[in-house]
Amino acid sequence: MGESSGDELVDWHRLTGWGDTWALAVVVGVASVPWTYGFVAGLDLPLWPAFIASATYYAAGRGGQAFVRGYSSNLVGIGYGAATVAIVDGAGGGSVLLLSLVVGGFMLLASLHEAVSVLSFTPGGFFGYATLFSVHAAGVATHGIDGVGGEAVITAVSMLIGAAIGLLTDEVSTVIGEGR
To answer: What residue spans define the domains of the chain?
Structure first.
Protein backbone atom coordinates (compact mmCIF):
# COMPACT_ATOMS: atom_id res chain seq x y z
CA MET A 1 0.00 0.00 0.00
CA GLY A 2 2.75 2.49 -0.77
CA GLU A 3 2.41 5.64 -2.82
CA SER A 4 -0.57 5.90 -5.14
CA SER A 5 0.07 5.61 -8.85
CA GLY A 6 -2.99 7.74 -9.61
CA ASP A 7 -4.54 4.84 -11.53
CA GLU A 8 -6.16 3.23 -8.49
CA LEU A 9 -9.87 3.52 -7.83
CA VAL A 10 -9.17 4.34 -4.18
CA ASP A 11 -6.04 6.09 -2.96
CA TRP A 12 -5.45 3.82 0.05
CA HIS A 13 -2.35 5.75 1.05
CA ARG A 14 -4.49 8.81 1.83
CA LEU A 15 -6.93 6.74 3.90
CA THR A 16 -4.52 4.66 5.98
CA GLY A 17 -2.68 7.36 7.87
CA TRP A 18 -3.20 10.80 9.36
CA GLY A 19 -2.79 13.58 6.84
CA ASP A 20 -4.63 16.28 4.95
CA THR A 21 -7.49 14.00 3.88
CA TRP A 22 -8.34 12.87 7.41
CA ALA A 23 -7.74 16.31 8.90
CA LEU A 24 -10.21 17.91 6.51
CA ALA A 25 -12.75 15.10 6.98
CA VAL A 26 -12.63 15.40 10.77
CA VAL A 27 -12.80 19.20 10.79
CA VAL A 28 -15.71 19.35 8.33
CA GLY A 29 -17.54 16.56 10.14
CA VAL A 30 -17.16 18.21 13.52
CA ALA A 31 -17.96 21.71 12.20
CA SER A 32 -21.12 20.45 10.50
CA VAL A 33 -22.76 19.68 13.85
CA PRO A 34 -22.88 23.23 15.31
CA TRP A 35 -23.20 24.63 11.78
CA THR A 36 -26.41 22.69 11.17
CA TYR A 37 -27.76 23.27 14.65
CA GLY A 38 -26.99 26.98 14.53
CA PHE A 39 -28.71 27.49 11.21
CA VAL A 40 -31.79 25.46 11.99
CA ALA A 41 -32.34 26.23 15.69
CA GLY A 42 -30.60 29.56 16.14
CA LEU A 43 -30.24 31.70 13.05
CA ASP A 44 -33.36 30.45 11.29
CA LEU A 45 -31.52 30.58 7.98
CA PRO A 46 -31.79 28.07 5.15
CA LEU A 47 -28.96 25.60 5.64
CA TRP A 48 -28.42 24.32 2.10
CA PRO A 49 -27.14 27.64 0.65
CA ALA A 50 -24.36 27.61 3.25
CA PHE A 51 -23.29 24.10 2.27
CA ILE A 52 -23.35 25.07 -1.41
CA ALA A 53 -21.17 28.10 -0.70
CA SER A 54 -18.74 26.04 1.37
CA ALA A 55 -18.44 23.58 -1.50
CA THR A 56 -17.98 26.53 -3.87
CA TYR A 57 -15.06 27.69 -1.74
CA TYR A 58 -13.33 24.32 -1.98
CA ALA A 59 -14.03 24.01 -5.70
CA ALA A 60 -12.59 27.49 -6.32
CA GLY A 61 -9.27 26.57 -4.74
CA ARG A 62 -8.04 27.41 -1.28
CA GLY A 63 -7.31 30.51 0.79
CA GLY A 64 -8.45 34.10 0.57
CA GLN A 65 -8.51 34.22 -3.22
CA ALA A 66 -10.84 31.18 -3.39
CA PHE A 67 -13.08 32.78 -0.78
CA VAL A 68 -13.33 36.04 -2.74
CA ARG A 69 -13.73 34.43 -6.16
CA GLY A 70 -16.19 31.80 -4.94
CA TYR A 71 -18.42 34.07 -2.88
CA SER A 72 -18.31 36.96 -5.36
CA SER A 73 -19.44 34.56 -8.07
CA ASN A 74 -22.17 33.18 -5.80
CA LEU A 75 -23.33 36.72 -5.01
CA VAL A 76 -23.60 37.78 -8.64
CA GLY A 77 -25.46 34.55 -9.41
CA ILE A 78 -27.90 35.36 -6.59
CA GLY A 79 -28.42 38.77 -8.16
CA TYR A 80 -29.06 37.23 -11.57
CA GLY A 81 -31.52 34.78 -10.01
CA ALA A 82 -33.37 37.55 -8.16
CA ALA A 83 -33.56 39.61 -11.34
CA THR A 84 -34.89 36.60 -13.23
CA VAL A 85 -37.64 35.98 -10.67
CA ALA A 86 -38.57 39.68 -10.60
CA ILE A 87 -38.71 39.93 -14.40
CA VAL A 88 -40.62 36.73 -14.97
CA ASP A 89 -43.05 37.03 -12.07
CA GLY A 90 -43.53 40.77 -12.55
CA ALA A 91 -43.59 41.42 -16.27
CA GLY A 92 -44.26 38.01 -17.67
CA GLY A 93 -46.76 36.59 -15.22
CA GLY A 94 -44.76 33.37 -15.05
CA SER A 95 -44.39 32.79 -18.80
CA VAL A 96 -42.22 29.75 -19.53
CA LEU A 97 -40.98 31.36 -22.76
CA LEU A 98 -39.97 34.55 -20.94
CA LEU A 99 -38.32 32.47 -18.19
CA SER A 100 -36.34 30.54 -20.80
CA LEU A 101 -35.16 33.72 -22.53
CA VAL A 102 -34.19 35.47 -19.30
CA VAL A 103 -32.35 32.39 -18.00
CA GLY A 104 -30.49 32.17 -21.31
CA GLY A 105 -29.46 35.82 -21.09
CA PHE A 106 -28.20 35.58 -17.53
CA MET A 107 -26.39 32.31 -18.18
CA LEU A 108 -24.66 33.97 -21.13
CA LEU A 109 -23.50 36.72 -18.77
CA ALA A 110 -22.46 34.23 -16.08
CA SER A 111 -20.42 32.34 -18.65
CA LEU A 112 -18.42 35.49 -19.36
CA HIS A 113 -17.29 35.82 -15.75
CA GLU A 114 -14.09 33.99 -16.59
CA ALA A 115 -12.84 37.32 -17.98
CA VAL A 116 -13.40 39.15 -14.66
CA SER A 117 -10.80 38.21 -12.06
CA VAL A 118 -12.98 38.48 -8.96
CA LEU A 119 -15.78 36.47 -10.66
CA SER A 120 -13.55 34.06 -12.51
CA PHE A 121 -14.85 30.95 -10.76
CA THR A 122 -17.67 30.63 -13.26
CA PRO A 123 -19.48 27.67 -11.61
CA GLY A 124 -19.97 29.84 -8.52
CA GLY A 125 -22.29 32.10 -10.49
CA PHE A 126 -24.36 29.11 -11.58
CA PHE A 127 -24.45 27.83 -7.98
CA GLY A 128 -25.67 31.20 -6.66
CA TYR A 129 -28.27 31.43 -9.42
CA ALA A 130 -29.67 27.98 -8.75
CA THR A 131 -29.57 28.51 -4.98
CA LEU A 132 -31.67 31.66 -5.22
CA PHE A 133 -34.23 29.71 -7.23
CA SER A 134 -34.30 26.98 -4.58
CA VAL A 135 -34.82 29.49 -1.77
CA HIS A 136 -37.59 31.15 -3.82
CA ALA A 137 -39.26 27.81 -4.56
CA ALA A 138 -39.06 26.76 -0.91
CA GLY A 139 -40.74 29.97 0.19
CA VAL A 140 -38.20 30.48 2.98
CA ALA A 141 -39.11 33.10 5.57
CA THR A 142 -36.94 36.16 5.15
CA HIS A 143 -36.76 37.81 8.58
CA GLY A 144 -39.23 40.56 7.68
CA ILE A 145 -37.95 41.39 4.20
CA ASP A 146 -40.67 40.57 1.71
CA GLY A 147 -40.47 39.15 -1.80
CA VAL A 148 -37.53 38.30 -3.97
CA GLY A 149 -35.39 40.99 -2.33
CA GLY A 150 -35.71 39.22 1.00
CA GLU A 151 -35.00 35.88 -0.64
CA ALA A 152 -31.84 37.34 -2.19
CA VAL A 153 -30.68 38.79 1.13
CA ILE A 154 -31.25 35.58 3.08
CA THR A 155 -29.53 33.54 0.35
CA ALA A 156 -26.56 35.93 0.30
CA VAL A 157 -26.22 35.86 4.10
CA SER A 158 -26.46 32.08 4.28
CA MET A 159 -23.93 31.68 1.47
CA LEU A 160 -21.54 34.21 3.03
CA ILE A 161 -21.55 32.28 6.30
CA GLY A 162 -21.05 29.03 4.36
CA ALA A 163 -18.11 30.47 2.41
CA ALA A 164 -16.56 31.66 5.68
CA ILE A 165 -17.04 28.20 7.18
CA GLY A 166 -15.32 26.73 4.12
CA LEU A 167 -12.33 29.02 4.62
CA LEU A 168 -12.25 28.35 8.37
CA THR A 169 -12.45 24.55 8.04
CA ASP A 170 -9.69 24.69 5.43
CA GLU A 171 -7.43 26.75 7.69
CA VAL A 172 -8.04 24.55 10.76
CA SER A 173 -7.53 21.32 8.81
CA THR A 174 -4.27 22.68 7.43
CA VAL A 175 -3.02 23.36 10.95
CA ILE A 176 -3.92 19.91 12.31
CA GLY A 177 -3.02 18.00 9.14
CA GLU A 178 0.36 17.72 7.52
CA GLY A 179 -0.04 21.13 5.87
CA ARG A 180 -0.68 21.81 2.22
So the answer is: 12-176
